[in-house]
Amino acid sequence: MSCKNMRQRILIIDDQPESASLLLACLGGRDVDIMVALDGADGLHKVVAGRPELILLDVAKPELDAFEVCRRLKQGVQHADIPIIFLSADTAIEQKLQAFALGCVDYITKPFIEDELIARVFVHLAMRQRMCQLEALGNQWAIKGKPSIDRNGDLYHQALEILNQNLANPPGLIELAHRLGTNERKLTDIFRNRLGMTVFEYLAELRLDRARHLLEASLLQIQHIASDVGFNNSGDFARAFRRRYQDSPSEYRHARRRSDQC
Fold it and tell me: Which runs of consecutive H residues, i.e. helices, occur in the chain?
């Protein structure tokens, strides 16, 4: 796993310039480097040359399609660990299952919601960065007997871990900062620099994304899902969910199941 870039790098592989430009606009101004490839072959070349930390891969490719690009990347030892997010207007369950079987980490349907895309991208980047840090620490222990730690990066990933594990009842900002041995201003600055949002703006995105996955993949009652992700009542949950996804939780679940059955 290569983790040498100071700024994380995203590769967009999309044969439609308008679509690629939309993705660039969504991700522009954030603390990441962006590369663009307009076909699968160029995408494979730029993976080797640019060593991205994440790939946004559009499914509709005229020649070397996204499934073949993903297959080739996952077969190679050097690049198999790069998280790949598929982008597609196709909501068919067979398409999604094929993508996940090949090793993609996420599948976002078009037209996508900008905030949802950004939240998913940075969740996967954070997970990859955490794995890189753990690998680097392991290597340091093996070579020197003690690790070399990026303090801000360590605080950031410890905060992510605490929030993920305590989604229903997270600590307040001051308590979270104290648990990490820092202060709330520094922790807020770290999140703003890395994600472009505050700690609890990130928490709000994480809660709704977790709820969305539970609505899609489980039979839990909506009231239980609301409680599991930290909402005190289902009404507040329904309003927040509608603001993010333009559907109520029940409408979203019904529409997903109907599309999967088609």
Answer: 17-27, 40-50, 66-75, 93-102, 114-144, 151-165, 173-179, 184-195, 199-217, 222-228, 234-245, 249-261
